[in-house]
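Lab notebook, page 48
Experiment: co-folding of the full assembly
Goal: obtain a model of how the components sit together before planning crosslinking
Operator: M.T.
Materials (sequences as entered):
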Amino acid sequence: MSFIDFQQVHKTYPLGKTEVHALRGISLQVDEGDFVTISGPSGSGKSTILNMIGCIDTPSQGDVIIDGVATSSLNDQQITHLRHQKLGFIFQNFNLIPVLSVYENVEFPLLLGAGKNDPYASWSAQEKRQWVQHLLQEVGLGDYATRKPAELSGGQRQRVAIARALATKPVLVLADEPTANLDSKTGDQIITLMRDMNQSLGTTFVFSSHDPQVLDVADHVVKIIDGQVDADYRTCTL
Amino acid sequence: MLAKLAVRNLLQHRSKSLIVGALMALGVALLVVGNSIMVSLDNKMEASFTHEYSGDLFIYPDKKAIELQTKKPSINRKKQTADANRSGPQGAESNADEQDNTNIFRSFGSGKKTVLPDYTINRDDLLALPYIDQISPQTVGMGRIENGLGAQTVSLFWGVDPDAWQQLGFSQYLTWHTGNFWANDEQGIAINRQVADAYQQSSGQTLKVGDEIQVSVSGDAGTKIRSLVVSGIFSFHSNAAPQLNIMSLVNLSSSQALFSLTTDTDSASQLTAADEALITNVSDDSLFANQLFVASTDLVIDANQLEAELSSSLARHRSQTQNAPHEFHFIAVQLSKGEDTLQAQTLLQTWIQENGLLWKVGDWQQAAGFVAAMASSIGWILNGAMVLIGVIAIIIIMNTLVISVTERLTEIGTMRAIGAQKSLVRRLIILETLVLSVSASVVGVIIGALTIGLLHWLGLNPPGDFFALLLGGQALHPTLAIQETFNAVLMMVLAALIASYYPLTIALKVNPVVAMEG
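Observation: model returned without errors.
Model output:
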């Protein structure tokens, strides 16, 4: 069974007296461990798909099933718990908490409480500390733990965001245009880092991008045009 | 983590935190200073009255109960109807007003409604009550002082027993410019300095100890005049009420005579047969016949006998006057040490009711009359102003918090996206509000306490006649009111929490999708 299953998903937004059809019957599946790129031009519906995978938006019609659970059947508390337990987020604008240090930003999701099935539920404070430091080492920011986000470059901030997204050992990490605000070299580094994490931790990555070069590193590509799946294929990069 | 986040958020938005914090600190400082001054003023007035004039409690006649008891049913019915026709329900209000206006400075008059029935039958019982330490029966009224040579002025009088005053400690708050109280078994008068000055201004004659003056009081029972010897001239230490400027002290029995507070008794005369015959046979014509003067050898006037007869008559009258049941206007009561005034007032009122006495018990504020009412009004006005300031502060704090939350929508959305429940957002906003309001309140308390400390050191001089009256003509040295300070902090924190309600609802409505939109 796929970890993510979109079943004829439609999404319409009101725009004045008219409606905008952001998604028009999308069906797609993502398996655990995939490194998926959702590509397409601006306004094609990439972000809407990511929002639905991230359980921060709901379909107008159809079902979005995450790990066997239809997201429309969950209340706000359950959805929030699902996001915390199984999903990690990397944002286009990094969205680090400005008043927290690099270390504290990465640690933050671990302090939001844990369910009994969460992998870090039984961790001691020291184990959590070691894990956060390990993640910072992995993203190359071991020496930046005490810095504030404002003291970092864009690339460094996105690395912190990647570490934060992985802190709770989620099954899936969502990245909405993670390289959009970075120069191409830094963008490549970030994509490579995510790919490395995908391979070393087995975490599923789904990220949106309209950068054709990104397609080269993905092992599953979904092309969206005008709210519909234009292409959905697997590559043989591995 | 939450506390760290809350504090750092406040520091991050320093300018807004400073504006809101300064506003809160100012509010708390104002509350602390205002309330401390009011409490100090209240304490000073209470101390002035309870220590110097009124005692902890004062007993006064229950006019309404006396009126009800003295009304005869047949007359009553007619009168009640007439009253109802005349004034409707206002009649009752008028009675209530009259009752409430009773205080230790007011001339009660001599009518039955305004006079405490003889309390001597209850004196020992009163003193036997465990919560009562001392009592002082007193009278109050207004009269004229003159010397028959052109010098005259008006004065209020308290009829007092110097011993009772001494026991209550009232006399230690008098400054004697010359002389002192009269000896306890004498009739005398101690004149207030300002009354003595007015007396002097009226004729240029200085009032001295030993001078004999006439005191006259006009009332329902006509005009009563007593010759009294001036025993001293004094001032009250503090003049917590304007009436004290013209309040002189007169010995109790003289005051009772002047204020017609000696109860008249009716008794049938025992006449001999000769007396009866004389009265029956005597007519105006027989008394005033053609002969205006009748020379009679039978009529021999013995001067010694006449003097003895007159002396005997005067002595008998004095004896009757002294032995007759006396009445008072009020009784000042000093409670035993450590007694709770309110509790004692309730107990005493219950005791009075149980004993069928037509008395009521008032506290110092009632004894003080309009002066305490004015202080109380100022307190209410101050509280009203504080509430107004509080409402304005809430609106300003709320607007600032709304801006602060609106600027952090992405941050809040991010937290929600990565797994923070709404409860965490709620706790964060409330914690920020608490940290800000408590810190600002602490600063406000420090500012308020320093201001009060400065005012205590400098002394708060009354800025005008009105405040001079409230302060008893002396500088107020306010002290920090701990309970009110605590209340001020509590009020500010509560106001801040109320102010945070709307921003909180905005924060809780933040959709995680906001984080995605950046």
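Interpretation: Chain A touches chain B at residues 47, 50-51, 54, 56-57, 76-77, 80-81, 83-85, 88-89, 91-93, 95, 97-100, 104, 107-109, 111-113, 164-165, 168, 176 (CB under 8 Å).
Next step: discuss with group before ordering constructs.
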